[in-house]
Amino acid sequence: MRTTSQNIDHDIFFKKVNRLLLVILLLMVACFFTWSENVLITRAIKVVGRMGVLFGSYLVYKKIIAYGAIDNLKWHNVPSIFMYVLYLLLGFASFLWTTNIGVSALQWFMTTQTLVFCYFFIKCLYLLDKFFPEHKIRLFNLLGNVCFVLITIFVVGMWVNPDVFFRYTHGGEEARLGGYMMNPNELGMLAGVGVAGLLFDLKRDHKKAWTIFKLLVLFYGLYATGSRSSLIGALLIIGFHVKQSSNTKLKILIITGMIVVAPVAIYKVVLKDGDSSRIEEVLSMTGRLPFWTALINEGLPREPMLGFGFMRIDYKEYFQSTHTYPGKMTHNTFLQVLMNLGFVGITIVIFQMIFTFKGISKEHSEKRLMLLSMLIPLIINSLTEFGIFGESNYGILFYQLIILYISFKQNDILTPAQKLYLKKRRPDLVY
């Protein structure tokens, strides 16, 4: 039986829940950063902080129920979440053969903890949609604002304390935003996800001037990271929005901005001012191509079926071929799975992604566009960095949010006890 809300003002409740969801998502993403060079402080933030935020997401979930909602949601697009859980179960089983159980266990528990956080966070949004259909809390707005706040901290920090917020590469010749706190390519991906989220605020005319300012900050931060892949991802997101949009004025505004910005950004970030030696580096993907070749030719044949264990790529701490640099991770999330869990693991992951894309394709247009926009920077980052199946990072967090956001559907059937509960808590409901 369908429930509908009468004209009762819940604005104070919505604002409070929106603030709480924004803060806990912000803290969750921030917990992936290395905010201190002190190992103990970093571990405390990553472990204690993330567990605290997980508990916070559960409390918000309970708060929404206590205010007047029933968790009678049904599972939806089951193959996607089932294959993801199967991937985690295989990772857990790999403790039996991993080359370093301490590393494997830590990475597995952090990834699983993130999934539990996402479970309650996404349920909060579904319960709001079901029992408070007039609310204006949106996942894309929360993600966009979280990314904006974090990128702003780094943009301000690079002017206030460049030694901390910049990472110097190529013998100190190139300064890239990120410092010791975050890999510049990962930070660029965060900016890309922020762009994907805030473009929807621009599309719905939500505080247009303020949204444009936030987008400019994100693009400036992305440019400062020097991340080629993230820049390409951001441009693809914009192109994707232009293609899907029916708003002529918005199309003209975005295309004009791209015509002005894209050539300079590509020349500076991707082509590195036309430096021939740097262009050669681009063609080899900064040494990644020979490293991947060595992994497949030398590493994979050693443990082809089940791999070296969750987040392990060799018997030793580093994989090193005669002609490549030593690497602790593959810089490609799909190769990472292949080395971690072998052909069995990569088969599970491929089917998991197929079912995820299939589930997204069945969603309504705005939700489908939002999820595909989020996936663009995540997939591109996955080809060159940790990615959505790599070592614990906020790319995994965003991907798990996507999986769970297509894994529930509303249930119109209420039991007599649930109806009685709603009569007491929500007299404004008609059902």
Automatic annotation (TrEMBL):
What this protein is called in its record is O-antigen ligase
Segments passing through the bilayer: 20-35, 41-61, 81-99, 105-128, 140-160, 180-200, 212-240, 252-270, 334-357, 369-390
Q: Extract one GO molecular function annotation from the record.
A: ligase activity
Transcription as a keyword?
Answer: no
Enumerate the InterPro entries for this protein: O-antigen_ligase-rel_domated, WaaL-like
Q: Which GO terms describe its cellular component?
A: membrane
Species this protein is from? Marivirga sericea
Compartments reported by the entry = Membrane
Give start and end of each O-antigen ligase-related domain: 215-349
Keywords associated with the record = Ligase, Membrane, Transmembrane, Transmembrane helix
| Membrane topology recorded in Swiss-Prot or TrEMBL | Multi-pass membrane protein
